[in-house]
User: Fold this.
Amino acid sequence: MTDHAKRPVPGAARPAQAPVTLSIDIGGSGIKAMLLSPAGKPTSERERLDTPAIPTPHAVLRVIDRLRARLANFDRVSVGFPGVVKNGAIFTAANLHPRWTDFPLQRELEKRWRKPVRIANDAAVQGYGAVKGRGVELVITLGTGMGSSLFTDGKLCPGLELGHYPWREKTYEDYLGRRGLDKYGKKQWNKRLREAIEQTHQLFNWDHLYLGGGNTKKIDFELGSNVSMVSNEDGILGGVALWRE
Assistant:
């Protein structure tokens, strides 16, 4: 699906299956949205708009409102957010703006749209779209920052922020996020990623590792049989999983 595909006509007939989920993926460079069936299958094209240059809560909400207008008919909302989320409010947003701290995003969207909303870390949502539910599975997203989520037999272990964990002289994100890629170059970035894969295997004893995010296209080495690259769309397709419990 392309970002510039023909948009659904606002007010068009609702798909036969309900509830329809509006799934939103907030990223450091882009914000994406798509309508999903109860089984998590796309019922619309994926829409994308750039993340504002100064990504304060209200600037990002204006972009989300524009996406919502393109995808008019839905029953509930799932949001993947790049930071720690607690009880529907934002606890950290290292790659967006300090004003996000303690911002009640779930409550704000429910007030604006009169729909039920659930919010989770973006890497957790991508993980829900990628994992198979067998054993220990780790998901790492390589984009503006470095996201992570850990699952045991398909159940999320919440709160993992591996990207901000001390590693070498800095943190994982300092080496493997976009800052690290720009500062150290592709060759050194790949070397550090190899090291991180081995390090996380020793740390978590994962059975399978999934790598997502826009910078996976920079990977230039062969991955092991228990390491897979996943589509960026998993960050949207996993949105239905937020309503399973």
About this structure: The two ends are 29 Å apart (CA to CA). Residues 89 and 190 are 35 Å apart (CA to CA). Confidence is low (pLDDT under 50) at residues 1-16. The longest helix spans residues 178-204.
